[in-house]
Amino acid sequence: MSDDTTAYTPLADVAAEPGVAKPDPLLKVDDVTRAFGGLMAVDVSHLEVQRGAITALIGPNGAGKSTLFNVLTGFDRPGSGRWWFDGKKMAHMPAYRVARHGLVRTFQLTKALSRLTVLENLQLAATGQRGEAITAAVFRPLWSRQERAIRHRADELLERFRLDHLRDEFAGTLSGGQRKLLELARALMVQPTMVMLDEPMAGVNPALTQSLLEHIVKLRDEEGLTVCFVEHDMDAVMGISDWVVCLAEGQVIAEGPPQSIGTNPAVIDAYLGKQHGTPPAEELTS
Ligand code: ADP
Ligand code: MG
């Protein structure tokens, strides 16, 4: 790959069609459904996510974006369907095992986590998602070595996200932008190969969104991480994504490179046309 971050080309020849095959898919989804009562929240017949790319998932409120994330990461059960992560069949796998295979999603900082320090939040993310607390109790001598490794990883992430001066502060005292960075750092504690970010910019002041976006791009460029993110801000989507998937009523109604998506009639009809305050499609692509 070239040093030029704009030269990400593996998707250049991929057709902008729902369910289209990718040259190197890290995640493959087949016929995944999830219903709540009579409501079909997710109904994805086929979707592939390219390894090492940033894929944006867009669509109206209630389209099933969060539910799809939950199902794929083991936090919710599908009604039916199969999916493969890095060639490994993932259905029926609990979340901690999905995470161990390298697929994680971020979570909003809860009230309980707000009462832990920034460092404790990271330490808990490492042990909690891997179920290592049990191992540690059985193999005491290993514990301190493992604890040191966790601490080392936490320090690394605190430095990267410039949160190191806040390590001993309660997470609840962080600003909106710092919270989002902590949520991201928590997901990265287990050194995943793919992260799913559900509205990573929500509630962040505009001055900080650019820095958040830059961090996400760096994850792709410097670590080869595969990123899938849900976002309503079309400037952010256009700015950093290599590929955009549009979900409506649980189904993939369109996908393609970001330049193509703003003018896609299905996307305008289901999403962009209904968004308040959204500029017309031609402005989105300019
Ligand atoms: P999005 O993230 O795209 O806004 P969601 O995945 O949150 O959409 O929701 C998809 C649909 O499923 C919505 O109609 C929502 O009301 C419904 N839904 C989501 N979670 C539940 C749940 N736990 N119980 C019942 N309905 C739900
Ligand atoms: Mg959602």
What does this structure look like?
The structure is a single chain. Helix content is 39%, strand content 22%. A hairpin with a 2-residue loop joins strand 4 and strand 5. It has a domain of 185 residues: 3-Layer(aba) Sandwich (Rossmann fold), CATH 3.40.50. It is an alpha/beta fold. The protein contains 12 helices and 10 strands. It is globular, with a radius of gyration of 19 Å. 39% of the residues are buried. It has a 6-stranded mixed sheet, sandwiched between helices. It binds adenosine-5'-diphosphate and magnesium ion (MG).
Terminal residue distance:
27 Å
Instruction: Assign the CATH superfamily of the domain at 4-108 and 193-213 and 227-285.
Output: P-loop containing nucleotide triphosphate hydrolases
Task: Name the CATH architecture of the domain at 4-108 and 193-213 and 227-285.
Answer: 3-Layer(aba) Sandwich
Residue share in helices? 25-40%
Taking all Cα atoms into account, the compactness measure Rg is: 19 Å
Look at the helices and sheets and give the structural class. Answer: alpha/beta
The tally of beta strands, per DSSP, is 10
Q: Find the CATH topology of the domain at 4-108 and 193-213 and 227-285.
A: Rossmann fold
> Regions with pLDDT < 50 over 5+ consecutive residues?
276-283
- Beta-strand residue percentage: 15-25%
The CATH class of the domain at 4-108 and 193-213 and 227-285 is: Alpha Beta
Number of helices in the DSSP assignment: 12
Largest sheet: 6 strands, mixed
